[in-house]
Amino acid sequence: MGYSVIQHTGLLDLPHADVLFLHIDRTVLPDEYVARTAEYPVVINGRAVDISRHRYSMARLSQNDGYDGPVIIKTNANYGGLPERRGQAERRSPLARLARHAARIWPGTQWAENTGSIDWSTVDHLNPRHYPILENPGEVPAEVWNNTHLVVEKFLPEREGEFFYVRYWTFLGDQSMSGRYGSRHPIVKFGGMATPDTFVEPPPELRQWRERLGLDYGRLDYVMHEGKPILLDANKTLGGGDSIMAYRNRFDILATGIAAYLS
């Protein structure tokens, strides 16, 4: 599109730019980054300082809500708390990082085998592809309810036959792309897609959620449950992997949304 793009890490020797993408893979932006980047004319996602799940979860439960249906345990932090976990590991010595990696368990990956060996009062991360799904709140370990790193939600899937579905809305400025796809696994991810990705019109509630979270660029994942949209996840640092090439033409159109910040 003719624009010059600079990739820069850290706060030292910040380059001049007309538009800054504050693309930091943390649920809560560090205060120093918010303060130092405020001098730029346009800061994309500069208002998205906190996308913690407790800020937007529509299905969050407390221990005494009286709900008796299926539940799912997630982290309050984005993507299972793994970005924050990586940040902690980077600050450790190489030997400590190696020891931590060797001893690491993935809470929630094998719920039946691991539940007795996990101290849920100290868990600060989960495998985001295997959040524990339980029959009712009574099966949730007591320590989970008091752990501020964790969130217990009603499990409200969008399901048709053997498939679980998720919907998404990806946006930059005034451009967006959206769709719906299914998986046989209850935690639906692009990598486990087992149905075609078909276009769906995002409901108006998504624009309200986007504004509430301060997102200029990102993706909202949601389901339709009993006719109502339920927000599952908010992401401001999108990845791609092998699947991104299948969406190349759509991303080319999405990229034109940057013009809204250059006029």
The DSSP helix count reads 7
Q: Which class of the largest domain in CATH terms?
A: Alpha Beta
CATH T-level fold name of the largest domain? D-amino Acid Aminotransferase, Chain A, domain 1
Order of helices and strands: EHEEHHHEHEEEEHEEH
**Total count of domains:** 2
Distance between the termini: 15 Å
Strand percent estimate:
15-25%
Tell me the CATH superfamily of the largest domain.
Answer: ATP-grasp fold, B domain
- Poorly predicted parts: 98-106, 108-113
Number of strands: 10
Structural class: alpha+beta
Give the biggest beta sheet: 5 strands, antiparallel
Mean pLDDT across all amino acids: 89
CA-based shape:
globular
CATH architecture of the largest domain: 2-Layer Sandwich
Percent in helix: 10-25%
Radius of gyration in whole Å, from Cα? 20 Å
Provide structural commentary.
The chain has 263 residues and is of the alpha+beta class. It folds into 2 domains: 60-154, no CATH class; 158-261, D-amino Acid Aminotransferase, Chain A, domain 1 (2-Layer Sandwich). Helices cover 19% and strands 22% of the residues. The protein contains 7 helices and 10 strands. The chain has helices at residues 31-37, 82-90, 94-103, 111-114, 142-145, 205-213, 248-255; strands spanning 19-21, 42-44, 71-75, 133-134, 150-154, 158-160, 163-172, 175-183, 217-225, 228-235. The strands form 3 sheets. Strands 6, 7, 8, 9 and 10 form a 5-stranded antiparallel beta sheet that branches. A 3-stranded antiparallel beta sheet has the order 4-3-5, with no helix packed on it. It has a two-stranded parallel sheet with strand order 1-2. Strand 1, helix 1 and strand 2 form a beta-alpha-beta unit. The radius of gyration is 20 Å and the shape is globular. The protein starts with 18 loop residues before the first strand and ends in an 8-residue tail after the last helix. Residues 98-106 and 108-113 have low confidence and may be disordered.
